[in-house]
Every structure is written in C-alpha cells, then in structure tokens.
Design brief:
The protein is an alpha/beta fold. Helix content is about 40%, strand content about 10%. It is built from twelve helices and ten strands. Strands 3-4-2-1-10 form a five-stranded parallel sheet. Strands 5-6-7-8-9 form a five-stranded parallel sheet, with helices on both faces. Helix 1 crosses helix 11. The chain starts with 8 loop residues before the first helix and ends with a helix.
Length: about 350
C-alpha cells in the first residue's frame, strides 16, 4: 500500500530514525495464533509490543483457560523472537533484544462469567488489560451496539474496583456510552480506549465523544487512534487514507493534549474471529457504516502491521516534534501501563 506523504529526503530520514528509536506499541491487534509470520510483520513495522486479543469475545472461563494454554505454548515455541509482557520492563527488554512483546488483553470480560474471584486467576496467567464489554451486553454492562445501554451493573462496579486493586488496565473501546462514562467515573486508575477515534470527526458508535475523551484524559489515560476504516472515514463512499487517520490524531491532540494519544492498528488476522456471528453488531446499527468494509473498501487502512512506520512519516508531515512523536508511538501507552501495572 502506498502511503506517500511527499516528504523530503531529510524528513524521511528523520522519521526512520525516530521509528527505530521509539518504543512502538500497537494498542490493539487480533493475531492469528500459530502464525509465526505475525512476528515478521511486527518486526518489519518496527512494533515493539502489542495489546493482543488473546481470547475470543465469546469465551467463557473454561475456554478462556484453554486458549491461554495454547498462547503459552505458542510463545514458548518462538521464545527466541517473542516474550510475554507482564511489566513495562518486559517491553523495554523486548526492544533491547529485538523481540516482540505480547500483552495479553482480551476484548471482553465474559471469561470471568459472574464470579469476581476468577479475575485473579486470569491476572496470574498474565492478563494485564481487559475490555469490560464487547459490542453486546454482558454481566458488567452494555456494548456500543446494544439497543439500550443501562450503564455499569453492580457487578461491573465491583469488577472495575477489583481491576484497580489487582493492577489490570480498564479498556472501554467497545463499551456503550453510559457504561463507559460510569467506568471512567468509578475507576481510580487511568483508563484507555485502546482502539477508537473521535466521534466528532466520524459518527460511529464505536467512536468516543469529546466529553468522554476529555474525561479519559483527566484520569491520565490514552486513546489509541485506530486505522480501522469505518472509524476514520471523512466522506461516506470514499475509502479513507492516512490523511484521515492523521486528522483524528490532530483533533484529539488539540482537544486534550499529546500525552493522551496513542496508535492502534485494530488489524484482525484471525478468520474465526471475523466469521463468528457473535462478533457482529447486535441491536442498534453502528451508523453510519456497519462493521463490514461497506462502501469504504478494505476493513483496515493498512495491509498489515508491517506498515506501521508510515504513521511516523505522517506525524513528521504534520509538524510534530521528536518528543511528541515518541509519546504518540508508544510512550503514552507505556506511561499508563507503568501507572496501573506497577503501582
């Protein structure tokens, strides 16, 4: 894919050097477990670590444990190329050793079913980020495509508090508005929208309102601006470009400051995740586009995570300083991880 931004030779060299030096974190990706080429793509894109969707959105407790067992086997098989990130030191070590850091981050809390005590088991197994809900309703609260969003349940309030206590990052990317607002209010720790964009630029139920982004920033959190095309389009029927992605970054930076912006590819490599009926929106439609490619063409701006470097070129083209670019590429996520994981 050509993401040419007409940079000068000096600007391209600067972008290449910045990308090489930075801790680059992909705020959300769905790897196809067992496919070692995933690591090749990560390294080609200069990505240090990623928040990986290690469980499927419909996994309960037993299946969740089984899936994590498979993940451990996969990571052990390629231990010369990848490591499990439990602390920010692990991410730094991955950078130093030229490895890929995998952060376990399921996109639903369904695996704990209706038992808070089960959270500690998944935490001990390495899960460091949990998205409270996927698109639909669960014991915790409502997803963004439900017909009615009743906010956090009593169980959901307890879960957020327990996640704070155990040092698990609260992710609200797919939550409905009322549920997300409740969680921001209740959490004592920073929260993240690991992969979302600004609803003021692209009207989509997965995107976040200005008030939500401001509330997230006040808590010290980060929004991972995503290259998922339905969330960044600027003109219906015209496929988004990197310009649209950069526009969302600029908008949020102007709204809440550069310290609260990250990047997330939201690339989905697992065909089962894409085909599963439970993945599709339930209830009210995700207007103005649905979760298929629709009129916007391919589902993601990038062919694969190996094109992550083009974001750095884009940030250079928009006039960001070296320090600002390093923060956006991963420094901001790293700060939040350290605050929540290592308090």
């Amino acid at each position: 894919m050509n993401h040419s931004l007409n940079l000068s030779k000096e600007e391209k060299l600067r972008a290449r050097d910045l990308h090489r030096r930075a801790i680059v974190i992909d705020g959300s990706i769905v790897p196809k477990m067992g496919d070692a080429s995933h690591f090749d793509r990560m390294q080609k894109g200069g990505v240090t670590g990623c928040n990986a969707t290690v469980l499927r959105s419909w996994d309960g407790f037993r299946r969740g444990i089984e899936r994590l067992g498979l993940w451990y086997r996969w990571l052990e098989q390629y231990s010369d190329r990848v490591l499990l990130a439990i602390t920010t030191r692990d991410i730094m070590r991955a950078k130093q050793e030229g490895k890929v850091a995998i952060i376990f981050g399921p996109q639903n809390s369904k695996m704990i079913e209706d038992e808070i005590i089960l959270l500690s088991i998944f935490h001990k197994l390495g899960i460091k980020i949990i998205q409270l809900t996927y698109n639909y309703h669960n014991f915790v609260g409502s997803g963004c495509t439900e017909r009615v969003d009743s906010g956090l349940s009593n169980f959901g309030v307890r879960l957020v508090k327990e996640m704070n206590q155990q040092g698990i990052l609260v992710d609200l990317s797919h939550c409905g508005d009322a549920t997300a607002n409740d969680a921001i209010d209740i959490s004592d720790d920073p929260i993240v929208f690991s992969h979302a964009c600004a609803r003021s630029l692209t009207v989509h139920v997965r995107n976040k309102t200005d008030d939500q982004i401001k509330a997230m920033a006040e808590k010290g959190g980060v929004i991972g601006i995503t290259s998922y095309t339905p969330l960044i389009w600027s003109k219906w029927g015209v496929r988004p470009t990197i310009t649209d992605l950069l526009d969302h970054i600029d908008y949020v930076v102007k709204l809440v400051g550069v310290d609260h912006v990250g990047i997330a590819s939201d690339l989905e490599e697992d065909p089962e995740e894409l085909s599963r009926e439970a993945w599709k929106p339930q209830g009210r439609p995700a207007l103005p586009s649905d979760y298929s490619a629709g009129q916007t063409g391919r589902r993601n701006l990038f062919e694969n995570v190996g094109e992550f470097w083009s974001i750095t070129e884009g940030l250079v083209s928009r006039g960001y300083s070296d320090n600002e670019i390093i923060k956006i590429l991963g420094g901001n996520f790293l700060r939040v991880f350290k605050t929540v994981w290592e308090k």
